[in-house]
Design brief:
This protein is mainly alpha-helical and 444 residues long. It is built from 18 helices and 6 strands. α10 runs antiparallel to α11 and α11 runs antiparallel to α13. The two termini are 47 Å apart.
Length: 444
């Protein structure tokens, strides 16, 4: 019986595979095989025994069903795997798991899964950045109204709006890459983290093991890899999810008919917007991103709580992490790719943007305030003149500039919102240039 929506609705198969039951067992077997080879290199077990263990440490020999059967008898999942691997490794089975504790295997297996997923996460963030880069570049001169508090404020460009998202995504790239060395970390220091079972050789074995697996080493172990690393991982993913929700919320707002400035991709030849209101084009992908982003962030608190363990370890983190790590990873990949598709196929109604901005004379309030200052008025005095003039225009109609001239007796140059976008182009081009450098660096 399938219960989780991840199994039938959300997530890409190539990412779900990383965190699947089969992958989890395969990763643990990979660690056991690498451990045996490291111990052989250190002269602790015979090389032939290590080769035998390595050969049988696969799902071809160690069957999930057999591991589950053993676990049902003994009540310990890692020991069930150890027993299953030992039994298929013949005489060499006596060396399986030598000097190890369960979390040496599970946490190092987690690190392998993190390592594999980080490649997807980095690709996703660059894919999103590519889409934002192109959209910003194409619209760097597309003037629109900027909004604060949901109200018209000052003119901006759509290119500037999207370049802000690009800059934010670039920071996420930096966070992800910087965190990799702290998150992709395993351990082989046994029970309570002292490595007492193999004595001084433990340090050497851990070094060989992690080097061969391409992982970092836990430099301050207890019986587990320190969970501040996992907290950082989930926190970064939650941060990315928050940005995606913000981006998607803006698309949803700008697609509202009374604004109508953008529209997310919609297959008009086939796609159904509503089961009864056949005319509707709903921003369902952006809404889906928002919904799933909230689920991702919901795992942040339990991950923090899972880092608070008794003494050198307890088991209160185990069950929650079986949900947290796969779910946040699979869902962030899912919504990143959905957001990429939205920005790649986004319809930009520049004509509507233009109409919304040029029809709002009040959006030039700051411009006229500065014109008064340049005519000798104090800033506060000018502010009050513009405020009163604006309130009268809202109440009785008319043009803001003319109302200000009537109040001051000063002639003010008529302005266009198109001429009051400040440094929007400069900022946009700076962000675009910064991304070009990052992209070039990644491709070389």
């Amino acid at each position: 019986m399938i219960v989780s929506p991840l199994d039938y609705r959300y997530g890409r198969e190539e990412v779900k595979t990383i965190f699947s039951e089969e992958s989890n067992l395969r990763s643990m077997l990979e660690v056991e095989a690498a451990l045996a080879m490291a111990e052989a290199e250190a002269g602790i077990i015979p090389q032939e025994a290590a080769e035998e263990i390595k050969m049988h440490a696969s799902l071809e020999y160690v069957k999930i069903e057999e591991v589950k059967r053993i676990e049902g008898e003994i009540g310990h999942n890692v020991m069930a795997m150890v027993k299953a691997l030992s039994s298929v490794s013949g005489e060499s089975g006596k060396y399986v798991h030598l000097g190890a504790t369960s979390n040496d295997i599970t946490d190092t297996a987690n690190a392998l899964q993190f390592k594999r997923f980080y490649s997807f996460l980095a690709d996703d963030l660059f894919g999103l950045s590519d889409a934002l880069y192109q959209l910003s570049k194409n619209n760097k001169n597309t003037v629109m109204i900027g909004r604060t508090h949901g109200q018209h404020a000052l003119p901006i460009t759509f290119g500037l709006k999207i370049s802000v998202y690009l800059a934010e995504t670039m920071r996420h790239i930096e966070r992800v890459e910087e965190s990799r060395k702290r998150v992709v970390v395993g351990k082989f220091m046994g029970a309570v983290g002292t490595g007492a079972a193999l004595g001084k050789e433990t340090v050497r074995v851990q070094s060989i093991l992690m080097k061969n697996l391409g992982l970092g080493e836990e430099d301050g172990p207890t019986q587990i890899v320190d969970r501040d690393r996992y907290v950082e991982y989930v926190s970064i993913i939650a941060n990315v999810a928050t940005s995606l929700e913000k981006f998607a919320t803006e698309i949803r707002n700008l697609q509202r008919p009374e604004i109508g400035e953008v529209q997310e991709p919609f297959n008009e030849s086939k796609q159904v917007g509503s089961s009864t209101m056949a005319q509707k084009i709903n921003p369902v992908t952006s809404e889906n991103v928002v919904s799933l982003a909230r689920i991702v962030r919901g795992f942040l608190a339990p991950m923090h709580e899972s880092a608070v363990l008794w003494h050198e370890r307890d088991l209160t983190n185990s069950a929650s992490e079986r949900f947290i790590i796969p779910y946040v990873s699979i869902l962030i990949d899912d919504i990143l790719n959905k957001m990429i598709a939205v920005f790649k196929g986004l319809k930009v109604h520049s004509d509507v943007m233009m109409k919304n901005v040029v029809n709002d004379d009040l959006a030039l309030g700051e411009a006229y305030l500065m014109a008064l200052v340049n005519n000798g008025y104090g800033r506060q005095e000018a502010h009050e003149i513009v405020r009163q003039a604006s309130m009268e225009v809202r109440d009785k109609g008319g043009e803001l500039r003319e109302n200000i001239e009537k109040r001051t007796g000063k002639k003010i140059k008529k302005m266009s919102p198109l001429d009051y976008t400040g440094n929007a182009l400069l900022i946009t081009e700076k962000v675009l240039s910064d991304y070009e450098k990052i992209r070039k660096s990644r491709n070389t």
